[in-house]
Amino acid sequence: MPSSDTVLAGLTALANDWRWLAIAWHVLLGVSVVLFVAGWRPSVRLAGCFLGAPLLSVSLAAWLAGNPFNGTVFAILGAVLVAKAVGFPDAAVRLGPPTVGVLGVAFVVFGGTYPHFLRTESWSTYLYASPLGILPCPTLSVLIGGTLVFSNLGSTSWRMALAGAGLVYGVIGVFRLGVVLDSGLLLGSGVLAVVVASDAVRRRSIRAASPGELSCPLPHRTV
Questions:
Q1: How far is residue 215 from each of residues 4, 121, 200, 212, 218, measured CA to CA in Å?
Q2: Is 131 helix (H, G, I), strand (E, B) or coil?
Q3: How many angstroms separate the CA atoms of 136 and 125, rounded?
Q4: What is the reported pTM?
């Protein structure tokens, strides 16, 4: 297994050598946000495919940079999530509860301006060239944030796969590579896991209440 210094050097090289790809993803994300604010509401299917695509971008960059571990993990994760997204309904996305939505936006901003690894003399470069679609942490953060913003985006398995991947890469980043900034990814993964658990509890409560409602006796008719 390569040393932490070797891994960090490789991630730094990726973030800087593939800056053009990060800029392209920032442009796509920015255009999508502007259109959404202007009133456009994509389908759940389209939104899911759009969010899943950067995972495949991370995989491609990792393979070309000689990192087969990240290349394999993100190829599988991206393929699974995009395949699930293709089966999502054509209904328009809906905004979730305000508190969860605000947290989602925060994680999107965090991932979209992730400053680690990128060499630059101006902080403004992080606004359009942070390693989104290139490195795991910022990419997963944006995906988790986007999933939190929309209440009907993603199945339970979609959300748990994202939360699990975020947890794993957050732990690796913070505790193996010493990138304290990746604590943001850990937090995002935790929030998404809590949302999934809360939804599961609510659905069980609804199912548990339904049989009782259906079994209520009909009023007795007297002749």
A1: 61, 69, 24, 5, 9
A2: coil
A3: 19
A4: 0.90
Q: How many other β-carbons are positioned within 10 Å of the β-carbon of residue 219?
A: 6
Q: Is 217 helix (H, G, I), strand (E, B) or coil?
A: coil
**What pLDDT digit, counting tens, does each position of 56-76 carry?**
999 999 999 889 999 999 999
212 occurs within a structural domain: no
Domain count, the chain: 1
Coil, strand or helix: which one is 92? Answer: strand
CB 107 within 8 A of CB 188: yes
Q: What is the DSSP string of 33-83?
A: HHHHHTT---BHHHHHHHHHHHHHHHHHHHHHTT-HHHHHHHHHHHHHHHH
202 or 89: which leads in pLDDT = 89
pLDDT digits (tens, 9 = 90+) for 155-180: 888 999 999 999 999 999 999 999 99
Confirm whether 218 is domain-assigned. Answer: no
Beta partners for residue 26, in sequence order: none
Region 199-215: mean pLDDT is: 70
Question: Does residue 214 lie within any of the structural domains?
Answer: no
In a domain, residue 182? The reply is yes
Surface-to-core class of residue 59, CB atoms within 10 Å of its CB (0-12 exposed, 13-18 middle, 19+ buried): buried
| Residue 51 structural domain | 4-207
Residue 94 scores a pLDDT above 80: yes
